[in-house]
Amino acid sequence: MKSKKFVKLLTLIIIAAFYMVAADFNTAWAKARFGTGCQKEYQNGWQTTLDYTWNRCGWFNNELDDTDTKVFYYNLHGAEWWWEEGGDSGTLDNVNLFYASTHGGAWGDISVWAMWDQNMLANSSQMRLGDDSYGLSILATYSCETLKFNDGKMWTRMGSIFRGGLRIAVGSHDKLYDGITTDEVGEDFADNLQKKNSIKWSWKDGVSDWATSQDATVMATGSSAADCGNRRDTMKWQNYPSYPRLRDGSISYYCYWYWNNL
Amino acid sequence: MNRLKKLAALLVTLLFCSFANAADFQQRIDLEKRSNKEGIGQKEVTLLERVPGPGKEAVSKALLDQFKKAKTPITTAGKIERKTRRNHVSIVGAGWFLDVSNDGSGVRYRNYGYLENKKENGLPVSSRLSQERLETLGRQFVKANLSRYIQLDKGEDLVPSFTEYAIGGVAEAKEGISKPEEKVYANTVVFTRTINNVSIVGPGSKIAIMFDNEGTPFGFDFDWPKYKQVSKIQKVLPLEGIKSRAKKLTTVPLDSPNVIVKRFECGLFDAGARKHNRQSVVQSACLVSYSEKKMVNQKAHERDRNSGHLLSSHIDFIPAGEEVILDEKWPQTLKLLNKEQKRDLAAPLAGPRKK
After folding, report:
1. Which of B289, B306, B350 is nearest residue A177 as measured by Cβ atoms?
2. CB neighbours of A139 closer than 8 A, spacing ≥ 6?
3. Which residues of chain B neighbour A54 with C-beta distances below 8 Å?
């Protein structure tokens, strides 16, 4: 009698475990969550209008939600708080991939992204991604400069963001252009992700058109130099959850990849 | 007064004086110089029509067959998945993919599976493949593999444009200044086309071939239509006329403070297989790409001169014909001809408000 009860209990545990694993698998691999935050024009013209932003972001959404779940698509009015720690659990950390298009800058110790509101910036030192809610894994920003590395201060600027467990960031070390030949870069990025290319090459092929000198950059972290290179080079939209999150002291290295006209 | 005029003219010239990259081949450097000095460099051009290619089905089938038994990394062997997209068909194999534009004149092939397996072959950046070697390798590849697609009519030339390198760096995650170790992993050469010495600017008429560090190709792109002459000549504005038009059409006035022009290249504008408007023509234009550094935090800038700014970068195509032909996909022609601009996709809503 006791053994029958034990078998029943064991069966229940196995079924429950199966459903839990399946649910996680489903969340992680089959249908991921993404969010988008973009801005075309700015309050009182404090920043130059990016004429092609709505198409860039709209087509990104249209492509990726063929296979995955679009959780939100917001403009950047008053958005600083939900980019930064304390406000990100319902937005950036509520999705697996966040795609943005706005102006950017790399300062001495921080990277910044322009919000709609005059003089409002999201500040990398106030951001920590990957540690709330679903936890962001991929940060993709079509913005100038924010992944600058040539002054040796890339980690100083981006470390705070990665310490939360973010897996990979894609953006630019210098310039990404706004124009009629670059309004499809979001759609192409999404398409390349769906083709099971690495996130690194998906970004590069997404932003590149050979008529525009785009400065694409990718950044990742690792427990060793080799681990970092491996994460940067092989992570895909289909397998990113299999790369353990690295947080705080478990990050020993950062690495990047860029394409340059030498 | 004359001095002032001269000074003003010099300033305008400097504003348009863009910087060539080290990666540019001499032909691109010459194009940049000629554009800055003369604009298109001719008083008139023959308008062209981009002849549609044989279609995505025919071209993808031909390429799949051509590389099926190849022993090189450019291979289409194995099981494939096929998906039709908005403007191209995509065929994905084991580690490789092939995209063909709807009309068949634009193709992208990559075998990243091959490249990523060869990562241990990263080289110091100084040992990257030279421009000369890349040009030679690129021409050889085109001749041996793509001659069916890359054809040149009378007066047309295939000219090298620039090189690009894929570089990886790694460093310890420590605050302060680090010195990453960098290696080069992939090398790309890009070609373009000239027609009677006039360059094609924009994404059309471009070929890119990607090589690993041993010079083995693993990817290529081409956007290479056949052009048909339209029985109409377009008179071209002189450089001053183009500059004056640019003042009205660029997103940011080029004489704004802190604007740096990166490229100014004049020729015939072809928006490429995906963007070209089949109802319009390939006509004269100048590509201008530039960036603007806007100071947004003066205090941060005073503490550190590398801080306090935002960078914005734009690329615009300025029609150069005296009479501009309408192209509904090209906002600058719409603006010049006082036509209504095409509408954007819907703008997003505001996000959550802070409580």
Report:
1. B289
2. A92, A98, A129, A161, A166, A168, A169, A170, A171
3. 344-348
